[in-house]
Amino acid sequence: MRMVKPLARLHEQLRRLPGIGSKSALRLAYHVLDMKREDVEELARALLDVKDHVHLCRQCFDLCEGELCEICQDEKRDRSLVCVVEQPQDVAAMERTGATRVCIMCSMGSSLLDGVGPDQLKIRELLLRLQKGTVKEVIIATNSDVEGEATANYLAGLIRPTGIKVSRIAHGLPVGGDLEYADELTLYKALENRREI
Ligand code: ZN
Hints:
By secondary structure, the chain is an alpha/beta fold. Helix 1 crosses helix 2 (22-34). Helices cover 44% and strands 11% of the residues. The protein has helices at 5-15, 22-34, 37-53, 70-73, 88-96, 123-131, 146-159, 184-192; strands at residues 55-56, 63-64, 81-85, 104-107, 137-140, 165-168. A four-stranded parallel sheet has the order 4-3-5-6. A two-stranded antiparallel sheet has the order 1-2. It binds zinc ion (ZN). Residues 57, 59-60, 62, 68-69, 71-72 line the site of zinc ion.
C-alpha cells in the first residue's frame, strides 16, 4: 500500500508491538494523525519516560522510579515475610488482593524451564537477603504451571536448609466455582490443599 513516508514509518513501528496486527496498526497510525498535537506530545513523552525512568528496585526487582520501590520503602510491611512472584505484573496482582500488606514481594523474572538460569531468576539476591536474618518465611507464589512448579520446588530446596519456613500459595477451586466444571488437576490440587474447618 502507498503511504506517506512518516505515516508508513509509524505504521511499521506500531505493527511491531505485540498483539497489534497490520490493520490495527494502520488504524492507530491514522488515529495519531487525527490527534491534537499536545496529545501526541504527551503520548511520545510517556513512551520515553517509561524507558528513561522505570527500572528495577534494588531490593526486590519490582519496577520502580527511584532506588527502592514503594513496597520496599513501606514501613508498615512485615519484613519477616517475603512473597516470591515471577514478574512485576504478579506483584500488582498480589497487591490487588489487599491481603499482602504484610508481604514484601521479590520479582524473580521468568521460570526455570524457559531455559532461564538461576542467575536470571535473582536467586542469589534472594538468598543474600535471607542471610540477613530478618526473613522468617518465604511464600512462593510462582504460577501453577509446569515451569512455576519447577521453580517453586527448586527454590524450596535452596531455602529449606537455611531453616527459614517455605510455603507455597494454595491452588484449587476458584471462588464461586462449581465442582462439576473444575478440571481434574484443579480438583486434585484442591483436595491436596484441603484444610481443617
Ligand atoms: Zn522493592
